[in-house]
Amino acid sequence: MKATDSDSPRLPSEENKIGVEKGELLPEPIDDVPDPDAGLSDEERAAHDRKLLWKLDMQLIPWLCFLYLISFLDRTNIGNAKIDGLQKDLHMTDGQYNAALSLFFISYSLFEPLTNVLLKRLRPSVFIPAIMILWGVVMTTMGLVHDFQGLATARFFLGLAEAGLFPGVNYYLSCWYKRSEFGIRAAIFFSAAAVAGSFGGLLAAAIAQMNGIGGKHGWCWIFILEGLATIFVGIASYWMVHDFPDEARFLSDDDRARVIRRLRADKQSSAEHEEFKMSYFWAAVKDWKTYAFAIIYMGCDGALYAFSLFLPTIIAELGYTSTKANLLSVPPYAAAAVLTIAIGYIADRTRQRGLCNIVVSFLGIAGFAMLLGSGKASVNYAGTFLGALGIYPCISNTISWASNNVEGVYKRGVVLGFVIGWGNLNGVVSSNIYRGKDKPRFKPGHGTVMAYMVLFLLGGSIITRLALAAENKKRLAGKRDHWVEGKSEKEIEMLGDRKPEFLYTL
């Protein structure tokens, strides 16, 4: 819908009244972008669209999932190293170990809001390989440290180097796919974290058998071998990671036009070139949605890191050996990966991302209630399953929800950086709530995670969904039309999600 000089309320069409129930407006013609499919039938257009989506999926998703698997493996393998003797061999107290964990999240979180701007300006094919090589080098040095100071320094720089991948890839994918297509891709991407948790336990158990080789402990080899693998993958990523749609070399001119037209029809312009301006940064800072989604994300991300860093320890305290504890950490992660993808699919189809968060969060709350209330090993192990099921799907779903509701190339990047950065900063809390003196029940830790999920994840999702629904009603009633009065079409386009015709995903 275009802005008019009329003072009468804007009356949405019947099609768009239906569309708002799904959290979207139906596409409008895009006249300023060449149409390579002009003159084709609807069936032929649909066939071209399916072929394009398949090409995008095959070129983008598998490698990016592989990169995040490596990233999550590298940041959480310290939990596997701990139960293999890291803390004892470095003569660290419980407080020093938790401090080393915290330092990662401090540098990781503080740098994240800036990384999407760097990603856009340096190009994904340069930025992502560069940070991978850097964190691979840091990871390798973690296997060479001899005391707390060395480990703490390495963890700080690991967080600095890794900061750009997760927010960067989510932002990057949002510049390729329609809002109704992004959720399942983000879910598949994030499911690599659950696979990493599962695979990490198996890999750590195998590598730890190298204990004594080269005079190194088994946990040293976990860091060294995984760090070297990251360096090699980072080098390969220069050829495997593609740039944004307006520069990606694997697209033909016709396919590039199709991508841009699809996003423009979806009320997005994120595929097109845009120069950075500080106004985009301030638009993100002043937007209430930035803080709403940051609160929700801290609810699931704080729980995520507590879970992933300490699951091997929790299972070990049930009476299992270090190797068996690593192996028993596999099934909860595998189940979480499956549900993460399923929720991504459901949320894309229903456009009810808030409801998905609300329903799934109850699984996690129930799981940590079991861990908090029971001392039986079987009940606690079942609780870890429900905990994983309640945490992992909400991570990718919350990122998709935030991305769906923010428009503008740089604004979206800054918002996602703030949301993810704030969530990860709560890893500092997660790193310090499972204390050695609380063994074997870890009640303060379980209680804190449960509070995060109830207050921030569940409560934040409910309040944000109600606020977005209220704003949609105002826009449909024409109460935001004054935002576009006297503006040109280009100025209206630059309003992004503040365009009165932009309706929020609930």
Mean pLDDT: 83
N-to-C SSE series? HHHHHHHHHHHHHHHHHHHH
- Assign the CATH topology: Growth Hormone, Chain: A
Shape: globular
pLDDT below 50 for ≥5 consecutive residues: which ranges? Answer: 1-29
Considering DSSP H and I runs of 4 or more, what fraction of the residues is helical? over 70%
| Helix count, DSSP H or I runs of 4 or more residues | 20
Class by alpha and beta content: mainly alpha
Oligomer: single chain
Relative strand content: under 5%
Main beta-sheet strand count, sense and barrel state: none
Do you know the CATH architecture? Up-down Bundle
Tell me the CATH superfamily: MFS general substrate transporter like domains
Region (Disordered): 1-41
Membrane topology: Multi-pass membrane protein
Protein name: MFS nicotinic acid transporter-like protein Tna1
Subcellular location: Membrane
Topology (elements, then pairings):
Blueprint: H1 14-21, H2 42-83, H3 86-89, H4 94-122, H5 124-142, H6 148-162, H7 165-174, H8 179-207, H9 218-240, H10 253-265, H11 278-286, H12 288-316, H13 322-328, H14 330-350, H15 353-373, H16 377-404, H17 409-425, H18 427-430, H19 443-476, H20 489-493
Helix pairs in contact: 2-7, 2-8, 2-9, 2-12, 4-5, 4-6, 4-7, 4-17, 5-6, 5-9, 7-17, 8-13, 8-14, 8-16, 11-17, 12-13, 12-16, 12-17, 12-19, 14-16, 15-16, 15-19
Structural features, described:
- The chain is built from 20 helices and no strands.
- It has a single domain, classed as Growth Hormone, Chain: A (Up-down Bundle), CATH 1.20.1250.20.
- Helix 4 runs parallel beside helix 7 and helix 11 (278-286) crosses helix 17 (409-425).
- It has 506 residues and is mainly α.
- Mean pLDDT is 83; it is low at 1-29.
- Helices cover 73% and strands 0% of the residues.
- The longest helix is centred in the first third of the chain and has 42 residues, at 42-83.
